[in-house]
Amino acid sequence: MTELRLEGVSKRYRAGTDETTTAALTDVDLTVRDGEFFTLVGPSGCGKTTTLRTIAGFEEPTDGTVSFDDEPMAGVPPEDRDVGVVFQSYGLFPHLSVAENVGYGLRFRDPPGGVSVDERVAELLELVDLEGMGDRAPDQLSGGQQQRVALARALAPAPDLLLLDEPMSALDARLRESLRRQLTRIQSRLDITTIYVTHDQEEALAISDRLAVMNDGRIEQVASPQTIYREPETRFVAEFVGDNNVFEGTVVARDGDRCSVDVGGKTIAIPAVSNGAERVHFCVRAAALSPAVEQNQLSVSVETSEFRGETVRAYGRWNGVPIVLQLEESPADEITVGFEPSSVHVLEP
Amino acid sequence: MRRRTFVGAIGSGAALGLAGCLTQDGDESDDSNGDPEPEELDLEGTLEVVTYESMIDGDNPAGPWLKEAFEEEYPDAELEWVQLPDQGIGHYINQAQGGQEIDADVYFGLNIDDLVSVDDNLEEGGLFRGLNADRIERSSRIRDGLDMGDPHDRVLAYDTGYISLVFDETEVDEPETFEDLTEAAYEDALIAQNAQTSDPGQAFLLWTIDAFGEDGYLDYWRDLRENGVRAIEDWSESYYGAYMNEERPMVVSYSTDQVFASAEGNDLSRHQIGFLNDQGYANPEGMAIFEDADSVDLAYEFLDFVLSNDAQAEIAERNVQFPAVEDEYVDLDDEFDQYAHVPPEAVTVGYDDLRGNLDEWVDDWAREFASQ
Amino acid sequence: MSATGRVAAGRVRAWLERHAIGLTALVTAGILVVMLYLPVGVVFVEAVLEDGTPTLGHFADVLTDPFYFGILADVFAEPLAIGTHLGSLAGWLAAISISLTLEYPLPGVDLPVPWLAVDTPGVRKGLFGFTAYQAALSTVASVVLGLPAAYVLANYEFYGRRTLRSLTILPFVMPGILVAVGFYAMFGRAGTLNGLLGTVGLGPYAFIETSPLAIVILAHAFYNAPLVARLTVAAWESVDARTVETARSLGASERRAFRDVVVPQLAPAVLTGALLTFIFTFMTFPIVLALGGLQLATVEVWIYDRIQRLDYAEAATLAILETILSLGLTYAYLRYESAQTGFARAPSPPPKERLVPDLRTALSPRRLAIFGYGLVALVLFVGPMASLVVGGFTDGSGLTLRNYSFLLERQLEGASFQTLPLPAIRNSLLFGVATLLIAVPMGVVISVLTARTGRSGTIVDTLAMLPLAVSGIVFGIGLLQGLVFGIPLPGGWRFQVTGAVAIVVAHAVAAYPFVTRNVSPLLTNLDPAMTESARALGASRFRALFDVELPLVANGIVAGAAFAFAISIGEFSSTVILASGGESYTMPVAVERYLGRRSGPAIAMGTLLLAVTAASFVVIDRVGGRYEL
């Protein structure tokens, strides 16, 4: 199995006719451990797909190195990198049958474990629950089935790395969830190092061992889902991951392990800020804002609310700051909530 | 049919009425002694003769007969026909300019304007040898007025044709003069050819220059154009396309037209020959020996052979052209005499007048015609 | 073979496979340098030299000559005198008058039609202006006449459809002289059409005399409408029908779905056809003069004249201006084409309807319109060819076989120095197949290298169209001077290229742009994820191309191959120039050589040319059809 490392990887494209370039990736450092399910998440245009294509060898980085198990990949064409790729559009070969699609990679690499090509194809089709579909044309399959064919095809030659580029984005929500479970099941069974690209933070948090949040060609934070969720390092991560209320204010007083911050005219108590910064960004998770807490009370004007089964998600504003709440009942138009200073997470400036 | 085959000129000085600038040179050729006759003739080997397509590939052409008969007479010799390249004489001018040796010995089918082109682009009197007339006994048989006017004596005529009108007598009366063609009776009646791309077209243009002078021909053509004359690319399209599908009742063509029409079984009323001003424009075809020729002796023998009785008759009848030699040196079928018409008077514009003028005449005419 | 031998052989194969595209590109570049850039450069350089020193004088002379550029010549002469130019434009606009009149558009038929007459004061178009004008009209006519054919061939099933589709490019191979003679035989006052009309008491009409320009434009459409049709059929059969179904399911009417979904998928092919038609008809040569006469002369006529008169400087200047115009248009078009980024997943053409399922349907307005178009096509496309063929079997006294007995006799008794029919046929077929084998890889590799590569790709792609954008006359003379006469090298050597191989390569150079133009739009439309998936699975770039992309663009390749074959069969000028030995003549060369004071033998040879070519097209489409989806 394989460990993947990106060191100082940058990618610039020439824009238009003039000599200026636009950076798609800037100084990306990343290590993906052997057997890990690793996700690149971020808004569209953040560089996550470029990163994936650089790993696969479809793009050569302008600077920096990509290495598999310490072996630098510069100049190695995609066909020699032993990666399996599943694209957003699947890229199935419409003129070949499902079995021929799955078996295509076995024209160039012997099936693992000394089995025959036919056996390997049958094995893979079984793995993705498509037994007996081998003779169909890809066009005759549903979107979810096509996606699984693409996955089986990518896995057939037993690649060192599995790269998935938004493979679920064309599917409906329910199918997505069941395929997601199937994917994690297969991934852990094969124990294959997997890089998964998505713009869906929920999906990213749900399936990854670790993930990298990307923004504007840079990596904002690499951590486990729990850490990303609870301890976002930057304002971008906090906002992107969702369920977070982000505030910005000026430190007005320090008092031991607390300090007071002026946010739009209201003084809020938060844990002490270690450095001597004047301006401070901090976030509070939706679930930590409660009508029952009497500290740091904010009176929020509610705009919409969504029923979420056990809870209600409400969106509104306080002092111009967008606020998200997780409540037990649908709120009135105005609601006052407070939060404990201990639930505040201070962000990097 | 090759584009540049049928134009030529013979000197019939009396017929030239150009505004004082066209005169016929007498024989001032002191370089005509050319190649002295060697003690012993070398009559072995291959003679490469360049000629145009219809001499070789046409319907019953003279080429194969000439080869066979020549080789019979000179058993140690082989005559090899070479297809004239597409660019015609320009090909050999280019080759000479590029300093390349020319393999061929004889050029068969040379026109006066070819020689003009040679002398305009290479050194004066170049590309071909000045011929030693003494070595070609039968050259004295060539009719008066067919000496082609080359001051450097590089060329001998071997046949000639005449440009005339061909018309449908059921649709129009025979036009008598050039001026008639600008009358209302002949409105939209005449098909001519583009003098840039067609030999009969160029010959007809030169004929009008002979008739109206170089200061008058453009005015005449303006009148013709107003009367609806059309200048079609080439003889084949104008004749087999437009004329034979009865687009118009008159076409610029050859005075031998009836020979073909009768062989095709056509009604001769559409194949009447009209000689404007009782003239026809003569187009002699000539032969010359390349300067680089290897088989010079054989080449001289070939030129002489082409002027023999049998060869002259075969060329005339197979290619449907008129012999270059006086009547007493050739016997033609009666049918040929019946259908091939000779104009009462032959006119042509000779070498000296074409020299330095031809391109400009044609260009002025074409610009006038094609102006948009 | 030993184990190490096998490994070595495997390595060689792997190396070859990995570098196959690069090597093909290299060979293509080499061929283009020797067989295109060198010969064209040899002539073009004359335009900027005066006695060996560089000059722009030739361009200045041509650009400021009103004969060539009409009123634009003044602008070129004094580009900065804007006030004067605007003044003359205003004067011209003020002199336009519009009036309503009654016209009788059909000659001899008393049917008045109200006609809005726009009377503009004469503008001096100049030779370039007129050339562009007639090319634009010809392009419109070719598109208008070609699209219905594409519609019928792509959407309806009927007996002989495949054969008909194969034969659409037949006009492409006809020598100009035969097209001219065929048009006169069809539309002349004593032609076939008037003969047919006469049987119902109409006519005769002077179709050609009434408007030579219209006939020239129709003749251009005769050549080019089939080109438009063939390109469009290939695209139409590659339309993703599911996108139509999606649009319909979203509530679009049939018409609306066609406009929003099908039209954008066809547009590149139609515009390619229009572009090629404009370029071809801009550089038209024998047809305009043969049917219209010198009044309709084009730039190419003057290039021919200047070459004949050995005035290479002016010929090259005119030709360069032609080429600049053609390449400019090509570049503009290719920018548009590369901006089209709809990824079709796979061709899944709509099922074909039966053309005549029953009598009732056959009488529906749409079917009747199709039959009406069929009649027009019969007159315009089949008519000239059929009239020509019939002409080969007749003479003044009725039916005859003497033209064919001429061919037979020449074959059986002809001397070695004569042109024989069978070798001409054999050479044509051999050269055609060899051309196809070279032109298809050349064209495909250029498509692959330029697809989806942005502006630099567009520039390369534009330059790759050079063979179509260079005057055929200039190319011919360049081959003669650059390759037949040869380029002197140091040490007394001379670089010369002639003979059969040179002919084939020259044909391939003329033909590969058709492959590229047929393949590129389809290739650009393929989902790049397919190639990339294949590569990630271990396929080299070449294998991915071979296994995935080529099968999916087979329609375009077969169409391109058919064009390549047609170009080779119909090619005349470079063939005669390079066939220096005289043995390498082809069918069109034989036609030209048999053309004498009697037209019969040439027409008989032309009929053979049509028959052999038609049979070949059917075979190509049948063989190629097996690879189509």
CATH class of the largest domain in chain B: Alpha Beta
Shape of chain B: globular
What is the number of helices of chain C?
A: 30
When the domains of chain B are counted, the total is 2
Largest sheet of chain B: 11 strands, mixed
Low-confidence stretches of chain C: none
Major β-sheet profile of chain C: 2 strands, antiparallel
Strand content of chain B: 15-25%
Number of helices of chain B: 13
The share of residues in extended strands of chain C comes to under 5%
The CATH topology of the largest domain in chain C corresponds to MetI-like fold
Protein name (chain B): Thiamine transport system substrate-binding protein
Keywords (chain B): Signal
Organism (chain B): Natronorubrum texcoconense
InterPro entries (chain B): ThiB-like
Question: Could you characterize the architecture of this molecule?
Answer:
The complex is a heterotrimer of chains A (349), B (372) and C (629). Helix content of chain A is 22%, strand content 36%. By secondary structure, chain A is of the alpha+beta class. Chain A folds into 2 domains: 227 residues, Rossmann fold (3-Layer(aba) Sandwich), CATH 3.40.50.300; 104 residues, no CATH class. Chain A is elongated. In chain B, strands 1, 2, 3, 4, 5, 6, 7, 8, 9, 10 and 11 form an 11-stranded mixed β-sheet that branches. The radius of gyration of chain B is 20 Å and the shape is globular. Chain C contains 30 helices and 10 strands. In chain C, helix 8 runs parallel beside helix 14 and helix 15 packs antiparallel against helix 16. At the B-C interface, helix 1, helix 2, strand 2, helix 3 and strand 6 of B face helix 6, helix 8, helix 14, helix 15 and helix 23 of C.
